[in-house]
Structure prediction request, 95 residues.
Amino acid sequence: MPAFVVFTKEETVDQSELDTYSATVGESFKDREFKLLAAYGAFEMLEGPPIEGAVLLEFPDIEAAREWYRSDEYQSAAKHRFAGAHYRAFIIQGR
Prediction:
Protein backbone atom coordinates (compact mmCIF):
# COMPACT_ATOMS: atom_id res chain seq x y z
CA MET A 1 0.00 0.00 0.00
CA PRO A 2 1.29 3.50 -0.72
CA ALA A 3 2.33 5.81 2.10
CA PHE A 4 2.26 9.56 2.17
CA VAL A 5 4.62 11.97 3.90
CA VAL A 6 2.88 15.22 4.81
CA PHE A 7 4.66 18.40 5.85
CA THR A 8 2.85 21.51 7.02
CA LYS A 9 4.92 24.67 7.44
CA GLU A 10 3.56 26.63 10.35
CA GLU A 11 6.02 29.52 10.65
CA THR A 12 9.17 30.61 8.85
CA VAL A 13 11.96 31.75 11.17
CA ASP A 14 15.00 31.90 8.85
CA GLN A 15 14.45 32.02 5.08
CA SER A 16 18.15 31.52 4.31
CA GLU A 17 18.06 28.14 6.11
CA LEU A 18 14.99 27.16 4.08
CA ASP A 19 16.79 28.20 0.90
CA THR A 20 19.69 25.91 1.85
CA TYR A 21 17.23 23.10 2.53
CA SER A 22 15.59 23.60 -0.87
CA ALA A 23 18.98 23.54 -2.57
CA THR A 24 20.10 20.32 -0.86
CA VAL A 25 16.99 18.16 -0.32
CA GLY A 26 16.88 16.91 -3.91
CA GLU A 27 19.89 14.64 -3.32
CA SER A 28 17.88 12.68 -0.74
CA PHE A 29 15.50 11.48 -3.46
CA LYS A 30 18.22 10.10 -5.75
CA ASP A 31 17.51 6.45 -6.66
CA ARG A 32 14.24 6.43 -4.65
CA GLU A 33 10.77 5.76 -5.94
CA PHE A 34 8.46 8.62 -4.95
CA LYS A 35 5.99 11.13 -6.34
CA LEU A 36 5.73 14.78 -5.41
CA LEU A 37 1.96 15.23 -5.30
CA ALA A 38 1.74 18.79 -3.95
CA ALA A 39 4.18 21.48 -2.85
CA TYR A 40 3.20 24.91 -1.58
CA GLY A 41 0.30 25.31 -3.99
CA ALA A 42 -2.87 27.23 -3.30
CA PHE A 43 -4.80 25.85 -0.34
CA GLU A 44 -7.80 26.58 1.82
CA MET A 45 -7.68 26.05 5.58
CA LEU A 46 -10.72 24.15 6.79
CA GLU A 47 -9.81 23.56 10.45
CA GLY A 48 -7.08 24.33 12.93
CA PRO A 49 -4.50 27.08 13.16
CA PRO A 50 -3.26 28.66 9.93
CA ILE A 51 -0.28 27.26 8.04
CA GLU A 52 2.06 28.86 5.51
CA GLY A 53 2.08 25.88 3.16
CA ALA A 54 2.19 22.12 2.75
CA VAL A 55 3.99 19.35 0.87
CA LEU A 56 2.62 15.89 0.04
CA LEU A 57 4.92 13.05 -1.07
CA GLU A 58 3.90 9.52 -2.07
CA PHE A 59 6.12 6.48 -1.52
CA PRO A 60 5.46 2.85 -2.51
CA ASP A 61 4.93 1.81 1.11
CA ILE A 62 5.40 2.97 4.68
CA GLU A 63 8.85 1.39 4.98
CA ALA A 64 10.10 3.30 1.92
CA ALA A 65 8.76 6.54 3.40
CA ARG A 66 10.41 5.87 6.76
CA GLU A 67 13.69 4.87 5.12
CA TRP A 68 13.79 8.10 3.10
CA TYR A 69 12.93 10.30 6.09
CA ARG A 70 15.49 8.62 8.36
CA SER A 71 18.23 8.48 5.71
CA ASP A 72 21.49 10.33 6.26
CA GLU A 73 20.91 12.23 3.01
CA TYR A 74 17.54 13.57 4.11
CA GLN A 75 18.56 14.29 7.69
CA SER A 76 21.57 16.24 6.42
CA ALA A 77 19.21 18.51 4.46
CA ALA A 78 16.47 18.49 7.10
CA LYS A 79 18.66 20.20 9.71
CA HIS A 80 18.27 23.35 7.59
CA ARG A 81 14.49 22.92 7.49
CA PHE A 82 14.45 22.52 11.27
CA ALA A 83 16.47 25.75 11.63
CA GLY A 84 14.41 27.60 9.04
CA ALA A 85 10.82 26.99 10.08
CA HIS A 86 8.43 25.27 12.44
CA TYR A 87 6.79 22.30 10.75
CA ARG A 88 4.57 19.37 11.49
CA ALA A 89 5.33 16.18 9.60
CA PHE A 90 3.85 12.72 9.54
CA ILE A 91 3.60 9.54 7.50
CA ILE A 92 0.19 8.05 6.77
CA GLN A 93 -0.48 4.74 5.10
CA GLY A 94 -2.80 4.86 2.12
CA ARG A 95 -5.05 2.31 0.50
